[in-house]
Amino acid sequence: MSFVLIAEQILNGLQFGIMLFLMSAGLTLIFGVMGLINLAHGSLYMIGAFVAAAVASATGSFILALVAALSAAALAGAIVEITIIRKLYNRNHLDQVLATFALILIFSEGTRWVFGSFPLYLDAPSYLQGAVTLPGGIQYPLYRITLIFFGLIIGLGLGLLITKTRLGVQIRAGENDREMVSALGVNISKLYTFIFALGAALAGLAGALVGAIQSVEVGMGEPVLILAFVVIVIGGIGSVKGALIGSILVGLTDTLGGIFLPKFFSFFMDLATATNVGSSIASMSIYILMSIVLVWRPTGLFGQKV
Amino acid sequence: MKKVFKFPIIIATLLSVIAGNAIAETKIGMITTLSGGGAGLGVDVRDGFMLAINQSGRSDIKVIIEDDQRKPDVAVKLADKMVQSEKVDILTGIIWSNLAMAVVPSVTAQGKFYLSPNAGPSALAGKGCHENYFNVAWQNDNLYEAAGAYANSVGVGNSFVLAPNYPAGKDAIVGYKRTFKGDIAGELYTKLGQTDYAAEIAQIRASGAENVFFFLPGGMGISFLKQYAASGVDIPLTGPAFSFDQGILQAVGAAALGVVNTSQWNKDLDNAANKAFVKSFQDAYGRLPSLYASQGFDTANLVISALEKADVKNAGAFRDALRAADFESTRGDFSFASNQHPIQSIYARQVIQEGDVFTNKVLSMVLENHSNAYVDDCKM
Fold first, then answer.
1. B353 and B275: one domain?
2. Residue B117: which CATH number?
3. Which pLDDT score is estimated for B250?
4. CA of B67, closest CA in chain A: separation in Å?
5. Is B1 contained in some domain?
6. Res B70: pLDDT
7. Residue B236's domain spans which residues?
8. Of B10, B16, B211, B356, which has the maximum CB count within 10 A?
9. What local confidence, expressed as pLDDT, does residue A259 receive?
């Protein structure tokens, strides 16, 4: 196991974590501020990817595709919030889960109805293709490096929005006491629509960015959604900083676990069994991480004390 | 006045009821995946199947199509409904091996015929074979065995093998190793449904293998191929046809160009039945047929050929008619081994670009009239 391989795998884990962050940032805000469990967050991710693929094939521009993905997901988020989600704030979590699960089915079959059953084509633009050689002789795809920087910039922007702006103050206040905020004259329903659309836009953007290296198909959002829930539980519900740290932790654990655990077991068992046992434990590793964090800090790393 | 008008309608209805009873109708139940992930495969099987039924012009064959959503429990419920309330004679359509395992043994035990247009798990080819179960596609291991044989034929000394960690993935590796004579440079099992293969690709880069054999069906293969092309690793890839099927090649794009994959069918196979099939499929649906469409088409033609010889109600005669496989297959020569799985030739094909469409061309025949490894385990 060479240095180059390990460094490359750490970059892979980082990149995976950053993409998870784009998904979980919105999810944690919606859960933390609005108290809503939104299972349909993965559908917004899918919408972003499909719109990006459609726009990219129509115009040939990847930048336009990203802008379209972001706007379409934000728009879908706003419409869903105004027509459906708004009626669920005072219901219990089970009702929310049921309603947003129904949204998953509607979005999935709607997407199939519009785009068909076959996966769509979306690729990174030609100027971001191929691999670059980093210091130390590490060959790494240029597109993935761009993703890491892009995600970090968005994370920074989101952090500034929440800590430095008036809107951010309202969001944090809404998290603590929504009745008091509305009593102080903040239009809480507008704020909620904005947060939901913001979360949706980030999910849509993540879908478009990831769609270029993975497959754009119906149902692509649900596996990511599960990981995003793990992330926000680890990071602490409602905390964007927690989502960032949690995402990177999950990304690194998942990637490095998948490589080092089979190697580790091969020291004392034969290769086939080691691969088997190692990859089984690797796929549990993030859930083991989650349990450890929860035992140590029941509200997550950056969650508020109850 | 009104009464007078109604009379002809009533008489017509009565007549059609009588006529319907007079001609014995064959009911075929198709349970396939038409929604959720992997729906493209089911859609192709259905379209190929219905194309053959429509071409036959036989109005006495009634096909009932239901969507299993790729869920075993749904498939079992649908099968029960088709057997008990629809009273179908023949079942077909299932794409996924885990669903086939849940449905096939129970329907064949109830005396119904099951013709598989895709799934061919080893359990149903060996000890679990049944006289009413026919597989028109393949035994699951066939294409992997061909990939191993192809690697031998081009002189590969060591291979890196990669598959998802579930039964069909392990079968793929076992099938490849059964024929491949070189060494295994590395062996990896990924999570089922994994979408990011950066970690695996890094290990492939470090392994120094001469080729990579991978089995990653559906969206997994698309992700892997795109990421592999972007990684700058230049070790050649081979795999079974699933990741290079007509339905998903357009989504993979140029990343798949040049990859060699193994298949028992391709659109350029030179026989009259295949040429007619490719043309009529394009005319009917406006797209190129896939491997799955050819399997659906062959399955329907097998049923039609058997129905011409025997009535489905006469199970013994109908079974013999199926075993004869007396139909024009899109694959050319086609017959059944004693465990009622195909004996067929398997080809190496390469991904090419024709205009702006990505498709495959046949390179060479890898295994001629290939049967399967489970024939001797099947005691019928």
1. no
2. 3.40.50.2300
3. 85
4. 13
5. no
6. 86
7. 142-263+346-376
8. B211
9. 81
In tens, the pLDDT along B266-284 reads 999 999 999 999 999 999 9
Burial tier of A233 (Cβ tally within 10 Å: 0-12, 13-18, 19+): buried
Report yes or no on B4 lying in a domain.
no
**Interface pTM (ipTM) of the complex?**
0.72
To the nearest whole Å, the CA of A212 is away from the closest chain B CA by 8
Residue A40 tokens read as: 């349909």
Yes or no, beta carbons of B165 and A123 under 8 Å apart: no
In a shared domain, residues B234 and B122: no
Out of A2-6, A124-128, B57-61, B253-257, the most confident range is B57-61
Looking at the structure, tell me whether residues B250 and B353 fall in a common domain.
yes
**Could you give the CA distance from residue B188 to residue B165 in angstroms, rounded to a whole number?**
9
Cα-based distances in Å from A122 to A56, B93, B236, B252? 7, 31, 23, 8
Question: Does residue B341 sit within a domain?
Answer: no
Residues in B touching A119 (Cβ below 8 Å): 40, 218-219, 222, 247-248, 251
Task: Give the closest-approach CA distance of A128 to chain B in angstroms.
Answer: 9
B35 touches chain A (CB under 8 A): yes
A167-182: pLDDT as tens digits: 888 888 887 887 888 8
Considering only CB atoms, A109 lies closest to which of B35, B203, B205, namely: B35
- pLDDT, tens digit, 9 for 90 and up, residues B43-84: 999 999 999 999 999 999 999 999 998 889 999 999 999 999
Mean of all residue pLDDT scores within chain A:
89
And the tokens for A192? Answer: 């909620």
| Closest-CA residue of chain B to A10 | B199
The reply to whether B168 and B291 lie within a common domain is no
Nearest to A216 among B39, B193, B251 (CB): B251
- Domain parsing of chain A, residue ranges: 9-220
Judged by a CB distance cut-off of 8 A, whether residue A92 touches chain B is no
CA angle B245, B251, B257 (to 5 degrees): 65
Segment A99-109 shows an average pLDDT of 93
* Residue A305, pLDDT above cutoff 70: no
Same domain for B367 and B240? yes
- Let me know whether B130 and B172 are in one domain: no
B300 occurs within a structural domain: yes
Helix (H, G, I), strand (E, B) or coil at A261: helix
A280–B contact, CB cutoff 8 A: yes
Do B184 and B88 share a structural domain? Answer: no
Q: E strands, chain B, where?
A: 26-32, 61-67, 90-92, 113-116, 133-135, 158-164, 183-190, 211-214, 237-240, 260-263, 335-336, 342-354, 357-370
